[in-house]
Amino acid sequence: MTAQVIDGKAFAAKVRGRVAEEVAALKEGHGITPGLAVVLVGEDPASQVYVRSKGKQTIEAGMNSFEHKLDADTTQDALLALIGQLNADPAVHGILVQLPLPAHLDSELVINSIDPAKDVDGFHISNVGLLGTGQKSMVPCTPLGCLMLLRDHHGSLSGLNAVVVGRSNIVGKPMAQLLLGDSCTVTIAHSRTKDLTEVVKRADIVVAAVGRPEMVTGDWIKPGATVIDVGINRIDAGEGKTRLVGDCHYDSCAEVAGAITPVPGGVGPMTIACLLANTVTACCRANGLKEPQGLTA
Ligand SMILES: NC(=O)C1=CN([C@@H]2O[C@H](COP(=O)(O)OP(=O)(O)OC[C@H]3O[C@@H](n4cnc5c(N)ncnc54)[C@H](OP(=O)(O)O)[C@@H]3O)[C@@H](O)[C@H]2O)C=CC1
Ligand SMILES: Nc1nc(=O)c2c([nH]1)NC[C@@H]1CN(c3ccc(C(=O)N[C@@H](CCC(=O)O)C(=O)O)cc3)C=[N+]21
């Protein structure tokens, strides 16, 4: 079997198109322009690339983009003061603090100082609790993007066996919550999981969010399963070049799987599209307006 390729890039373009329509309607009907503030501390080159493409896509969707680039040695107090200003600014509907932060900063404290209503990453403890109890929240962008792709491919996810490899707060855990919300039978695997290959082999849906290049190979995959590869790993491609690979070994997995997301062009573009979607949702909620359909979980 050769897997169907789940085209995250094309799906993300559709989501951004929906976002742009909603933005136009907010402007025309209510004179409101959704605004997203992105805070980057330090000069990590990969983070700079993401922040640039977030800013570009925010503007393309018709929204306001506010970029705050702070020195790597910015103090905790200075960062908290900036977040306080953004929390109070009515033109800012979404705030994203790019992670990881430099080691001298307390990420938990910083994230939890964001107004939960503006926490478009969905990392604030209030949003984590709301998601865990099935209440309306801001949903983390990467898992939300994966859920949209899965719903589009499968229709209903009810009763399917889902295995999430990785238990981070930003991907693995919220992914598991969303799959549970859609009535999957969910297993969360991690570095201490025994017989990982056997666990993965039972899955109808595999979500790999491990950070290990090409770790999941085709012999781990149940024939016909859906493979969602969250991993983004830059590896040496020889001759001084690099290339991006996922946490799944694409060619061997694609031989066995029913469907698979590529890297690049899979989950990555969905993450940014969902960030824009969350910003519009936050803007509607802040203004007491009906929120757009199909852009949240
Ligand atoms: N496409 C996108 O938009 C995004 C992509 N990413 C990518 O997704 C990947 C995961 O990111 P993130 O969740 O932040 O990573 P973390 O490093 O925070 O978490 C990795 C998880 O994988 C588990 N793990 C590590 N090694 C193994 C192993 N050998 N076997 C089983 N489990 C293992 C860890 O287990 P333990 O807890 O036991 O240590 C941990 O729970 C990365 O490649 C990252 O670049 C991340 C965010 C967005
Ligand atoms: N507060 C916070 N929120 C995040 O959501 C967040 C973060 N910090 N820190 C870093 C990770 C990583 N991340 C990605 C977003 C888009 C692509 C993406 O668009 N990738 C393209 C390829 C891009 C390239 O060529 O480098 C693709 O997969 O097709 C990847 C990774 C968001 N993250």
Automatic annotation (TrEMBL):
Residues 6-121 form the Tetrahydrofolate dehydrogenase/cyclohydrolase catalytic domain. One of its GO terms (biological process) is tetrahydrofolate interconversion. Its EC number is 1.5.1.5, 3.5.4.9. One of its GO terms (molecular function) is methenyltetrahydrofolate cyclohydrolase activity. SUPFAM superfamilies: Aminoacid dehydrogenase-like, N-terminal domain, NAD(P)-binding Rossmann-fold domains. GO terms for cellular component: cytosol. NADP(+) binds at G166, R167, S168, I232. Catalyzes the oxidation of 5,10-methylenetetrahydrofolate to 5,10-methenyltetrahydrofolate and then the hydrolysis of 5,10-methenyltetrahydrofolate to 10-formyltetrahydrofolate. HAMAP family: THF_DHG_CYH. Homodimer. Belongs to the tetrahydrofolate dehydrogenase/cyclohydrolase family. This is Bifunctional protein FolD. It comes from Thalassococcus halodurans. The gene is folD.
